């Protein structure tokens, strides 16, 4: 059987990404990060769309070149339909539509949230693939979801945040501590040297499998303000302990919900994704949970956890196999259900 070559485009937020897959194997995975947003302490939608406009053609060309594939060899074009920033999505979808039309190959619209989960099905040495059903937990700067995954395209969101995403909880806490954006990786770094029980933060009370992180952020703000008023050097003197305590609280919140999800569904396979799954504390806790609770945990390769096009490509591959194609009238969606 002839292999399929899928070109995938991801442009839902601030990263312009393109990948080429040969069936489930990634031949290239290119991401152009938009550094401009760091100056603003968060993603500026208008600037993101403009940067996508500038980056998309070079990024696709680099992805093809790295893969050693010419345009004429492509079997299909997959792109992110949503959810995401509308202006950003439109750049990727317009590009994908035009290229599919020019090459006369199928167009495949991909749900970004499904892609974060199906990233686990990329062929990668040393990484196992979860079997259905499993629980997917997508944790990033834009998402916080627990999903029951019954099959490739049969997923159900069973818990999600009611306010901030978990990555925002990291980033906003970091900002309160005067750390640059995005602060999640820095909290992780300093937490390694700190005592996670030095300071106690209360966990939000949210029913069922949903999350809330905005209260934690406010709690941390008041905690820091109060202590800095008493001792102007409070942050500098306690940075590692503060970071460790914040991270510990966030991990506890995630673990409480995962334990409840396992209890409610009886499913013990957990697959995580999204930028926050890079967090070393979360990785360690999940690795421990395998022996502690008998779970099987799947943590994808780092480049497939943050926003990337390879994950869009793997969904494209599975949709192609089921002949799930879209016509050129398909529209981008800022919000999208599974
Ligand atoms: O998936 P991603 O690259 O983009 C989206 O938000 O969709 O995730 C970025 C988020 C940011 O909030 C960043 O602070 C967080 O992931 N992050 C981390 C770590 N690495 C990235 N948070 C905690 N610990 C980390 N090591
Ligand atoms: Zn994402």
TrEMBL record:
Domain Gcp-like: 25-313
EC number(s) stated in the UniProt entry for this protein: 2.3.1.234
InterPro entries cross-referenced by the UniProt entry: ATPase_NBD, Gcp-like_dom, KAE1/TsaD, Peptidase_M22_CS, TsaD
Cofactor(s) required for function per UniProt: Fe(2+)
One Pfam entry name: TsaD
Cofactor binding mode and count: Binds 1 Fe(2+) ion per subunit.
Chemical reaction(s) catalysed: L-threonylcarbamoyladenylate + adenosine(37) in tRNA = N(6)-L-threonylcarbamoyladenosine(37) in tRNA + AMP + H(+)
Chain coiled-coil ranges: none
Keywords from the UniProt entry: Acyltransferase, Cytoplasm, Iron, Metal-binding, Transferase, tRNA processing
PROSITE patterns per UniProt: GLYCOPROTEASE (PS01016)
Residues that hold Fe cation according to the record: 112, 116, 307
Location(s), subcellular: Cytoplasm
Function: Required for the formation of a threonylcarbamoyl group on adenosine at position 37 (t(6)A37) in tRNAs that read codons beginning with adenine. Is involved in the transfer of the threonylcarbamoyl moiety of threonylcarbamoyl-AMP (TC-AMP) to the N6 group of A37, together with TsaE and TsaB. TsaD likely plays a direct catalytic role in this reaction.
Descriptive protein name: tRNA N6-adenosine threonylcarbamoyltransferase
Organism the protein comes from: Flavobacterium litorale
